[in-house]
Amino acid sequence: MSVETEKQRWQRNFADLLQELRVAQTGVQILFAFLLTLPFSAGFPETSTFQQDIYIVALLAAAAATALIISPVAFHRALFRQGRKPELVRFAHAMATGGLAFMLIAMVSSVLLITDFLLPRPVAFVLSGLTGLWFLTFWAALPFMRRNWGEPDEDDDTEPTTARPDAVE
After folding, report:
1. CA 62, 66, 69 angle in degrees (round to 5)?
2. Closest by alpha carbon to 135, among 103, 168, 166?
3. How far apart are CA 99 and CA 67, in angstroms?
4. How far, in Å, CA of 16 to CA of 111, rounded?
5. Fewer CB near the terminus (10 Å): N or C of the chain?
6. Is 140 a member of any domain?
7. Is 168 among the domain residues?
């Protein structure tokens, strides 16, 4: 069993983050595309002011999520071959977290928009609240509760105490 070098570890962490971002990026781009086309559909003029406000929230949240989830690519381009992989990994982690938060807002807002259009408002609020709880359960509560289960993975989510960001690619 070979020992992973610090540089290899940062490279692996970055590759893992990119794989996660690919999944999130696909989902948010599909939602964003749907939201971009919605005002041009035949039924959109029938929406209430409340529904149009919710639409704006969903649209802007999807745009923000898209920007944050794609931003590690631009950051990588700017720092390419400068030996700043630890900084890049930390930045990508923060942007992925923020992107998921905005994606949650966009998803729940979209559910509220559609359910409010089709159902009585109290039902729409209940279904949207349940949707938010559902996402928070799988995106936050379960991962947080499982953090201390089993053996810790020594090289995940820890930073070496001797790491020099300027010395690693």
Report:
1. 135
2. 103
3. 8
4. 30
5. N
6. yes
7. no
Q: How many domains does the chain have?
A: 1
Contact 17, 157 (CB under 8 A): no
Q: What is the pTM of this model?
A: 0.74
How far is residue 33's CA from residue 35's CA, in Å, rounded to a whole number?
Answer: 5
Q: Which two tokens stand for residue 105?
A: 């807002």
Give, in degrees to the nearest 5, the angle at Cα 59 between 78 and 144: 70
As a whole number of angstroms, the distance between CA 76 and CA 131 comes to: 34
Q: Supply 46's token pair.
A: 């029938």
Q: Are 102 and 65 in contact (CB under 8 A)?
A: yes
Site of tokens 């977290």: 97
Q: How many residues are recorded in the chain?
A: 169
pLDDT tens for 42-70 read 888 899 999 999 999 999 999 999 999 88
- b/e burial code for range 71-109 (CB count within 10 A of at least 16 → b): bbeebbeeeeeeebbbbbbebbbebbebbbbbbbbbbbb
Output the six-digit token pair for 155. 């090289």
**Tokens for 45?**
């003029």
pLDDT of residue 150: 59
CB proximity list for 128: less than 8 A, separation 6 or greater: 108, 109, 111, 112, 115
